[in-house]
């Protein structure tokens, strides 16, 4: 099976968690895109969705799915999104697609986080994938120094030779070299650095369910 087929299989499996008549939180990235395409096939069953990025909002709109402003939604049954890495406790690294801040916000309003990913994303220790940290532009250098003091090697994410700008008008530092043995503690520590908007560690509020695509089928893990 190709990686795309594995992503498609988990996207299809996630439909089981969609509750009729409700608003669904939707993530960002290639796996989330497969989920949006699946959601479109049952769109008459739901009220709509809250998007975690402009890209996701456009794709939902293109399928004719109503997109709600999070400020008008007090609670959602589920948030469904991919991950760059996930461990056996449901802690994740996210933000490869630069949507980490809105992803964390939308997920915080959902009662359940369903992580959909191909099986290669399941790791013993988080940190091989560079950890994305969204920062206020004027603070990127001082935040980078603070991250280096924690043992990481931060690199400003570039696009066309310039700092890549997120949907929030901020920058991303990708931090290599962190062996993340205590994800909850590191999430709090990095969030505490002045100038950090959000760290792409989703550990304090990790996934509740993982749907992982493997050659043997979709593996479900409850955390
Ligand atoms: O966190 C994310 C975007 O900010 C994505 O969920 C993560 O990068 C995984 O993406 P993909 O499904 O394309 O592998």
TrEMBL record:
Role according to the record: Catalyzes the reversible conversion of ribose-5-phosphate to ribulose 5-phosphate.
Alphabetical list of Pfam families matching this protein: Rib_5-P_isom_A (PF06026)
Active-site positions on this chain: 103 (proton acceptor)
Enzyme kind, highest EC tier: isomerase
Metabolic or biological pathway, per its Swiss-Prot or TrEMBL entry: Carbohydrate degradation; pentose phosphate pathway; D-ribose 5-phosphate from D-ribulose 5-phosphate (non-oxidative stage): step 1/1
Keywords from the named record: Isomerase
Gene coding for it: rpiA
UniProt record similarity statement: Belongs to the ribose 5-phosphate isomerase family.
Taxonomy of the source species: Bacteria, Pseudomonadati, Pseudomonadota, Betaproteobacteria, Burkholderiales
Name this polypeptide is given: Ribose-5-phosphate isomerase A
Sites where the protein binds substrate: 28-31, 81-84, 94-97, 121
Assembly and interaction partners: Homodimer.
Residues forming coiled coils: none
Single GO molecular function: ribose-5-phosphate isomerase activity
Top-level taxon of origin: Bacteria
Keyword Metal-binding in annotation: no
Catalytic function, reaction form: aldehydo-D-ribose 5-phosphate = D-ribulose 5-phosphate
This enzyme's EC code(s): 5.3.1.6
Keyword Isomerase: yes
């Amino acid at each position: 099976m190709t990686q795309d087929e594995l992503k498609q299989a988990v996207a299809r499996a996630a439909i089981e968690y969609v509750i009729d008549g409700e608003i669904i939180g939707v993530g960002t990235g290639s796996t989330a895109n497969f989920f949006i395409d699946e959601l479109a096939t049952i769109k008459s069953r739901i009220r709509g969705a809250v998007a975690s990025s402009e890209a996701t909002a456009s794709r939902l709109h293109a399928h004719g799915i109503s997109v709600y402003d999070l400020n008008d939604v007090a609670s959602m049954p589920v948030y469904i999104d991919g991950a760059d890495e996930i461990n056996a406790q449901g802690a994740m690294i996210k933000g490869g697609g630069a949507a980490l801040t809105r992803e964390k916000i939308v997920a915080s309003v959902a009662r359940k986080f369903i992580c959909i990913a191909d099986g290669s994303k399941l790791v013993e220790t988080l940190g091989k994938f560079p950890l994305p940290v969204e920062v206020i532009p004027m603070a990127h250098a001082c935040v980078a120094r603070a991250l280096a003091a924690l043992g990481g090697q931060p690199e400003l994410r570039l696009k066309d030779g310039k700092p890549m700008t997120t949907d929030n008008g901020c920058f991303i530092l990708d931090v290599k070299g962190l062996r993340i043995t205590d994800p909850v503690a590191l999430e709090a520590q990095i969030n505490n650095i002045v100038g950090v908007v959000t760290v792409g560690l989703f550990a304090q509020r990790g996934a509740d369910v993982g749907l992982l695509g493997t050659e043997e089928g979709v593996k479900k893990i409850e955390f």
